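Q&A log
Question type: sequence-to-structure
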Amino acid sequence: MAQSESDGYVTQFVNELDTPVFVVGFVVALAAVISFATMPNLAGSAVSDVNAFLWQNVGWIYLIAMFIVVAFALFLVFGPWGNIKLGKEDEEPKYSFLSYFAMLYSAGIAAGIVFWGPAEAIFHYDTVPPFISAQSQTSAAAIGGIQYSFFHWGISAWSAYAIMSLPIAFYAYRRDAPMRVSTVLAPIVGVDNLDSKWAKLIDVMAVFATLGGIATTLGFVGSQFLTGIEYTTGITLGDTGTVLVITGLTVAFTLSVALGIEKGIRRVSQFNLALFGLVMVLAFILGPTVFIMTNTTEAVGKYVNQFVAMSFYTNAANDTNWVGSWTIFYWAWWFSWTPFVGLFIARVSRGRTIRQVVTTGVLASTAITIPWFGIMGSTAIKLQNTGQADILGVISEYGVAGSGYPLFEALPFGTILNALFLVLITTFFVTSADSSTLALGMLTTGGELEPSTINRVIWGALVGALASLLMVVGGVDALQAASIITGGPFALITLIAIFSMSRTCGDICPVFFESEQQEDTISSTAQIESQEIHAESTNDD
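Response status: OK
Response body:
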């Protein structure tokens, strides 16, 4: 019986594979792991050199692409295409709003939030961004630091994810296209041509980008977990300990993804979001509440008022290093996450409208992200100013990963808060990794909604190995470099997704045509909808 079940798992794994995508993706991932394990200095140096070339010479592409993405996302929220459904017209969403939001938020940007939340604003407060005209460690620098944390983690990041998900979901649920990233090409090449070499190339790049993006995040959060152990217990684990801890966390998220969305990912995501909310509320109540509200309010105003200028800021008249190290790194990081987050959002969005997806994925997610950074950033700055905690000193000694622990330690019930923070780090690690591993499985099986257990375990192991090796070899610098490199192609592919949705939605609901052109478009739209209805009735029969 056991042998039969084992044979069945292997047979499912082999039969479902999209062989070119799986083999190339697996070989690239394995080569990266071997390179960092056997030639750490050479591999780290190569990654850093490529990274420096990209943000110094083509960083402007990341900035322009992200601004276009944000503009299009806002158009979808407020424009006429928002009512288009990702599925049949009478189809209802499978998941409640709370479950949907919890999975979307936990899969998206969340893992990095626990790493940078307590650190980014106080970092900018000490080393002021060139865009902000302020002296170090002044009130103006405090506002500017919080403002920039909003900019880097706000609407821009979430817009890229939502835009990538829409053409995948639309063509998967209304035109029976495969659930994979290359489906963004469907309006250009047609659904029947999604096995072309260009489509395969996009799926291979999606595997590569997902590996780089998730390894970066897991490396950040893993280092924060290890720093927490060192800070609270005084125990330094070393390189071997680092690999062992990441291995343990890898087993946890692999188990979650192996259980599937209903039993694993959904339940862990709900717990994660509840714990995140609890920690945020406790920090707000126990921290400098008035200072938090005053600084956050002004920072939000400046963020909104100066959003366009910040989006195009390169500091071209002086030195572009700061923009490359911060804004371009973040934009590349978000773009490197678009394949797997976009695919995951598409996977759980059947039955929802475009407006619901973008509003949940962009506006609602930003609305919960900004309070976190406002609370963490304001509290860190206040504690530093009053001498209640030397957060900058801890960052100097332990790195950015250590910033949260002195912050929570200085508040009432600090021991409990630090324990909750460690648990939160763990759950964010698991929820980000399990959704990405599921997406890797879908990518390498031609769009299977439930990839085999063996497939998920293979990708879970490779992601964990790459994350731990990047941490051991190069720390934060190597992780940032990996993101910028893998995110580059998807800055352009996200623009293709915008073109795809514009063309598709324009056929269904013309916006930019008048008189005779509009009549022709409406006629073709009626034919398309008639064909859809006929196909659906045939399928029902």
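Response note: The CA atoms of residues 128 and 136 lie 6 Å apart.
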